[in-house]
Design brief:
Elements (H helix, E strand, L loop, with lengths): L1 H8 L9 H9 L3 E4 L3 H12 L6 E4 L8 E2 L2 E5 H7 L4 E4 L7 H8 L3 E3 L5 H4 L5 H7 L1 H10 L3 H16 L3 H4 L17 E8 L5 H7 L5 E8 L3 H13 L5 E4 L2 E2 L4 E7 L5 E3 L5 E6 L1 H4 L4 H4 L12 E4 L5 H6 L2 H7 L2 E5 L6 H12 L4 E6 L7 E6 L2
Parallel strand pairs: 1-2, 1-5, 2-4, 5-6, 7-8, 7-14, 8-9, 10-13, 14-15
Antiparallel strand pairs: 3-4, 11-12, 11-13, 15-17, 16-17
């Protein structure tokens, strides 16, 4: 079994941050930590466990004299570069901030780690125990994957989560994501349903990809400001077959709390500061012939395509698309990395809904993010 093979081969890492990094910090006379979020708190805790103490915590914001973070002096980035540089710094914030570029500009050495791995190490139990407890379903999903590249991808992701060795990810990295790749070289669909349309980046990618066409495009984005950006793009480019809806996808219709993140995306959360409208894909596409794009008609209508990257809400959203998935067999591209169990729970759910699907797995980032499960009815 794949879980037994991995756990018998590799020693589970005790921390999301490489022990080599701690050795480098220990060898320095002084070091700092950049960031003031959950990843920085985790980094401070792990340093404390090893008897290491940063001279300061810093970030991009302005701070008053005497401010602290986890009991350590907190200063602004400008102050840090003026007073402490060069000083080895452990970057502990999301990679989208591009903080290493700032350090390179100032000629300051830094270490970066995959902060997205926090959910692996901050769970209720060690990740290798999670794998053991789910060994049966993991094996079933692994065996159901339709090509050797998918199985390699699945295995390497599990190995990375166990060891934090980034070489496992580099070995399986591929582009592009969603379409125009070896799984979906061309996409000619009755309707493209873009769940988590963000600012229209996938729409623009689709329009720029040779050989891809759609009859209708549904851009579903619950954040109204971002939905407005997509609508502006649609109007500027006279895209009459693109429908922008400021709504999230879920397993029922209603209003849910929504937490906007600091990097621009957001997620459904009971403690969220905002409210968003949610609905099911089955409801949204009800009665829309191009959207349903039935697989077997006299005219051989093109299948629909559903893409989901919705920050951990993929399973409820898929449950809200059960009718269309079971009757129309749309091609799917579903993110399976937001939650630790998504890697096997989502493929298992897809096969339960439609046993005829052929499943493929590809990884599209140099981190734990952007793993996509593709489902196709051949």
């Amino acid at each position: 079994m794949i879980v037994e093979k991995i756990l018998n081969t590799y020693e589970p890492a005790a921390c999301a941050i490489s022990e080599q990094f701690f050795q480098q910090l220990r060898s320095e006379k002084r070091f700092a930590i950049w960031g003031t979020g959950s990843a920085a708190k985790y980094a401070v805790e792990q340093c404390n466990l090893r008897g290491l103490q940063p001279i300061c915590i810093c970030d991009s914001f302005q701070h008053n004299a005497g401010e602290q973070f986890c009991g350590i002096p907190l200063i602004s980035g400008d102050t840090f570069f003026d007073a402490y540089s060069p000083c080895l710094t452990l970057i502990s914030c999301h990679s989208d901030y591009k903080i290493p570029d700032l350090f390179e500009k100032h000629g300051n050495p830094c270490l970066t780690w995959d902060t997205s791995m926090l959910y692996v190490f901050n769970g209720e139990r060690p990740y290798h125990e999670t794998l053991r407890q789910n060994a049966e379903i993991i094996e079933s999903v692994y065996q159901s994957l339709s090509d050797t590249r998918s199985k390699k991808c699945f295995e390497n992701i599990l190995c990375y989560r166990i060891t934090t060795d980034i070489s496992f990810i580099e070995e399986i990295y591929s582009e592009p994501m969603y379409f125009g790749n070896d799984v979906i070289p061309q996409l000619n669909c009755g309707a493209f349903v873009d769940c988590g349309a963000f600012t229209g980046d996938t729409l623009i990618q689709f329009l720029d990809t040779s050989g891809c066409t759609f009859e209708k495009y549904y851009a579903l984005e619950p954040h109204r400001e971002k939905a407005a950006l997509i609508q502006k793009y649609v109007e500027q480019n006279n895209l009459s077959n693109v429908i922008v809806l400021p709504v999230g996808v879920w397993n029922e219709q209603g209003i849910l709390r929504f937490q906007q993140s600091s990097i621009g995306n957001g997620f459904i959360s009971t403690t969220g500061a905002a409210e968003i409208a949610v609905d099911t894909i089955d409801n949204i596409l009800s009665g829309e012939a191009p959207a349903r794009a039935r697989a077997h008609t006299h005219t051989q209508a093109q299948r629909g395509f559903i893409k989901m990257d919705i920050e951990g809400s993929e399973i409820p959203a898929l449950l809200g698309a059960r009718s269309i998935i079971q009757s129309d067999h749309p091609t799917l591209a579903i993110s399976v990395y937001h939650r630790g169990d998504d890697l096997w729970e989502i493929p298992a759910l897809l096969l339960e809904m439609n046993p005829g699907y052929r499943l493929y797995l590809r990884h599209h980032a140099h981190s734990i993010c952007e793993t996509v499960c593709y489902a196709k009815s051949e």
